[in-house]
Design brief:
It is built from 4 helices and no strands. By secondary structure, the chain is mainly alpha-helical. It has one domain: Four Helix Bundle (Hemerythrin (Met), subunit A), CATH 1.20.120. The longest helix has 47 residues. The chain starts with a helix and ends with a helix.
Length: 136
């Protein structure tokens, strides 16, 4: 009986530590999502006011947050029918990075129209992922 209690206690401790790590990962992702939203606002303001340094800082912050998307294991906290979302989110992160780089190239050439189009493409990637994942 004592052995059974010890094994049960060890199992419960392991599960609680695992759940805690999953909660921390989810919390980190939520934090990074808020930071990326703020970065998108910086990019938008930078584009509207032709503020290159502000726009470049927004791009840097946005790209910093993408790592959280790539390293997150959505299968741990999404319902089973949403497990594929991990691959989808990684693809969206790659596309966001590509369009962000395009914005930087466009503003260096003073092509603000193209940079605004790339911003719209980034916004589409974000929206696409949020609509798919949050539909559950």
């Amino acid at each position: 009986m004592k052995k059974f209690k010890s094994i049960t206690a060890a199992l419960l401790l392991t599960l609680s530590i695992s759940a805690s790590a999953d909660d921390k990962q989810k919390s980190l992702l939520q934090n990074d999502m808020r930071s990326m939203l703020s970065a998108m606002e910086m990019i938008q303001r930078g584009g509207f006011y032709k503020n290159k340094p502000g726009l470049q800082e927004g791009i840097r912050r946005l790209k910093d947050g993408l790592e959280s998307l790539r390293s997150s294991d959505a299968k741990k906290y999404l319902p089973e029918d949403q497990a594929y979302a991990d691959k989808f989110a990684n693809k969206r992160a790659d596309m966001i990075a590509m369009f962000a780089d395009d914005i930087l190239v466009s503003i260096e050439k003073d092509n603000w129209d193209d940079s605004l189009n790339d911003y719209q493409q980034i916004l589409s990637q974000c929206t696409s992922c949020h609509l798919r994942i949050r539909s559950w």
